[in-house]
């Protein structure tokens, strides 16, 4: 594998696997230390063992991905005051780490609350909105694809599962830090392209939530992803989006200046007040002449 690593064949393989994103990142200003972790393909017997153990069928695109490389890790840094700061991270867990989402052993006491206690019984069937959110109980089988650096979890989700039956259909969902579910894509390959498009920037998954990423994450996105960074529109009480709209006809129309009121001169405002002063001055002058 060392010979392939240094050869043009391996470089071309990385270009195809990463959709050319390594070359794009290296051309961005301030980006440094772009690292792609090389991994061997997963063996078919490991994939079959995973399916048998978890009673789920891997989607075809994810199976092909693991037969190409057992996981995916690409990271890059940005220079800040001439110091590299870890910024971008793209991760797809290895087959060995594609484990069910479970709660910590700290909450294993019989009387302790469980994740299933967070489930609601609201029915969303027949709605035209997003699909029904996954459940933390036996109705769903959830596996972690990306830990998101502690900002949440991207999960491979099988919904509407029946105990004792093998689950077939899967989707990709994002679980935020408040344990709310947000739908991402219907297939792994669509999510993979989405991850590459967002350059693995911090909190990019929060673009698909009602509240969006943090202000700091938005600043990084505007710096390195100005064409695709966006924020959800906020609606006013009438249902219209709240935007800063500029109406040139109102902003730049000519304004007629109102004439300022003329100040009355001293002679006009009080002629009697100025006259005695003038008489007094004239009287003193006449007295001097005498």
Written account of the structure:
This protein has 290 residues and is an alpha+beta fold. It has a domain at 2-105 and 130-224: 3-Layer(aba) Sandwich (SMI1/KNR4-like), CATH 3.40.1580. Helices cover 30% and strands 16% of the residues. It contains ten helices and seven strands. It has helices at residues 2-6, 8-17, 21-26, 44-54, 60-68, 188-197, 215-224, 248-251, 266-269, 271-289; strands at 31-36, 72-80, 83-92, 141-146, 153-158, 171-175, 181-185. The strands form two sheets. It has a four-stranded antiparallel beta sheet. A three-stranded antiparallel beta sheet has the order 1-2-3. The termini are far apart. The model is unreliable at 1-8, 104-108, 123-127, 230-237 and 280-290 (pLDDT under 50).
Proportion in helices = 25-40%
Average pLDDT works out at 77
Number of strands: 7
Q: Total helix count?
A: 10
Order of helices and strands: HHHEHHEEEEEEHHHHH
**CATH hierarchy, class of the domain at 2-105 and 130-224:** Alpha Beta
Kindly name the structural category.
alpha+beta
Corresponding CATH architecture of the domain at 2-105 and 130-224? 3-Layer(aba) Sandwich
Summarize the main sheet. 4 strands, antiparallel
Widest beta sheet: strand line-up? 4-5-6-7
Uncertain ranges: 1-8, 104-108, 123-127, 230-237, 280-290
Tertiary shape: flat
**How widely separated are the two ends?**
126 Å
Classified in CATH, the superfamily of the domain at 2-105 and 130-224 is SMI1/KNR4-like
Compute the gyration radius: what is it? 35 Å
CATH topology of the domain at 2-105 and 130-224: SMI1/KNR4-like
Portion in beta strands:
15-25%
């Amino acid at each position: 594998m060392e010979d392939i690593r240094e050869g043009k064949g391996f470089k071309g393989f990385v270009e195809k696997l990463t959709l050319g994103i390594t070359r794009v990142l290296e051309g961005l200003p301030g980006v440094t230390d772009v690292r792609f972790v090389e991994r061997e393909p997963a063996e078919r017997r490991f994939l079959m063992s995973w399916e048998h153990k978890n009673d789920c069928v891997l989607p075809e695109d994810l199976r092909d991905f693991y037969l190409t490389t057992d996981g995916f890790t690409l990271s890059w840094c940005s220079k800040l005051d001439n110091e590299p700061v870890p910024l971008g991270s793209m991760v797809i867990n290895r087959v060995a780490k594609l484990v069910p989402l479970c709660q910590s052993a700290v909450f294993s006491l019989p009387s302790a609350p469980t994740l299933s206690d967070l489930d609601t019984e609201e029915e969303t069937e027949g709605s035209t909105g997003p699909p029904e959110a996954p459940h933390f109980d036996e109705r769903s089988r959830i596996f972690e694809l990306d830990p998101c650096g502690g900002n949440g979890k991207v999960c491979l989700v099988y919904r509407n599962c029946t105990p004792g039956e093998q689950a077939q259909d899967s989707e990709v969902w994002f679980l935020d830090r408040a344990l709310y579910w947000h739908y991402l894509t219907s297939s792994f390959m669509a999510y993979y392209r989405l991850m590459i498009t967002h350059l693995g920037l911090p909190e990019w998954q929060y673009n698909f939530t009602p509240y969006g990423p943090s202000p700091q994450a938005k600043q990084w996105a505007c710096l390195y992803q100005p064409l695709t960074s966006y924020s959800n529109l906020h609606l006013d009480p009438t249902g219209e989006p709240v935007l800063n709209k500029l109406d040139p006809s109102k902003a730049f129309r000519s304004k007629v200046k109102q004439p300022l009121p003329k100040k009355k001169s001293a002679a006009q405002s009080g002629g009697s007040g100025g006259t005695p002063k003038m008489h007094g001055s004239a009287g003193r002058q006449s007295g001097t002449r005498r």
